Amino acid sequence: MTAPPADPAKASAPVTLRRVLGLWVLVFYGLGSIIGAGIYVLIGAVADAAGYGTPLAFLLAGVLAALTGLSYGELSARYPEAAGAAAYVQEGFGHPWLSRLVGFAVVAVGLFLTGSLAHGVVGYINEFAGVPPMTTALAVVAGFTLIACIGVGQSLWLAAAMTMVEIAGLAVVVLAGAPSLARLPVVAAQLLPMNPMELLGVGAGVFLAFFAFLGFEDIVNMAEETRDPGRTLPRAIILSIVFAALIYGLVALVSVLAVPLADLARSRAPLELVMDRARWAPHGVIALFALVAIPNGILITLVMLGRILYGMAHRGWLPAVLTVVNPLTRTPVRTTLLAGAIALAFTAAVDFIGLVTLTSAVNLIVFATVNVALWRLHRTRPRDGLAFHEPPWCPPLGAGISVALIVLELLR
């Protein structure tokens, strides 16, 4: 008996991304990117700028992130696609050149972020063994690029497990630094600085601390692999920012109370100094947690980069060859490998603080543009029936604060 002919439509159908992600996997994805991208490495640099205003700097940076996170939440409900911010700007302004520019800016942010984290992890590795900094940083990027190419479910469950470890590490830091809270009445006034020079330092600290919240926006690039994205994505964004802000506030507070500010500012492994104040904690314990947390941020960022490049290719902004999904892993392997290769180049070319500054500045520009895009959409294309709407005053306020932080850093 002759077999029926194959359906040519099915035979030629392209392989697509698989919708397997739910709310809590995405929350841990966001938390892993946010936490891994920040406090394990950055708290010393923020303390150098803001002094005892460091907890305030982190909280204000969280408020800024929340304002923009609300905009991303509504936009992800309107346009659930992998291109993320680039697609939002296209819908808001209708200018392909601007959309492409924003898309490439988001890619640049991910590349800067990957490089900065790769440099940051070296400081914690050196707690155990002296390693060549550049070679080690490059090896970390290369290894996690390969991991990011496997199935998205496996990648993000691994990221979620690593996120649990890094949150546990921060909980240990808070426990170790808890006795220092006895100093709180003595320094309470300094935690809320009032004179202009101190406020300028807090502003500079906010600019740096904002880097520690980067990652919530990566969630939207998983839209085409998310179940019920119109409801799930906004909730995941908001929960990630709220949880991160609570964790950061506690860690920053015990850090500035437990460790002299000058020591905190100089250290490449600042949270280890907090642990050293606890007699029960063996030296190097927080470095072990950091060795999970920071690479987790690298993995999550590389996963995001592969998706946004894939989404941009689908919009026709990159060569069509980059729209191919690997039939075995159901992931955009080509764009992930491309992102990893470029990240290696940035890791080799720019130092840690330079990468942090570039990441924050470019991301603030993107955030301002996305907020204005939603502000325009509220007026030109109002939408009823969305699973999530943000207050109408949030987009202009989020845009204004983003621009103000950029100006403040330029003046500083």
Sequence-ordered SSE layout with sheet pairings:
Blueprint: H1 8-12, H2 23-36, H3 39-50, H4 54-78, H5 85-93, H6 96-125, H7 133-148, H8 152-177, H9 184-191, H10 196-210, H11 229-258, H12 261-266, H13 270-276, H14 285-314, H15 333-349, H16 352-380, H17 394-411
Helix pairs in contact: 2-8, 2-11, 2-14, 3-10, 4-10, 4-11, 4-16, 4-17, 5-6, 5-16, 6-7, 6-14, 6-15, 6-16, 7-14, 7-15, 8-11, 8-13, 8-14, 10-17, 14-15, 16-17
Uncertain residue ranges: none
The count of β-strands is 0
Structural shape: globular
Number of helices: 17
In percent, how helical is the residue content?
over 70%
Which structural class matches the secondary elements? mainly alpha
Mean pLDDT comes to 81
Hey, roughly how much beta strand do the residues contain? under 5%
Distance between the termini: 81 Å
Order of helices and strands: HHHHHHHHHHHHHHHHH
Please summarize the sheet with the most strands.
Answer: none
Radius of gyration: 21 Å
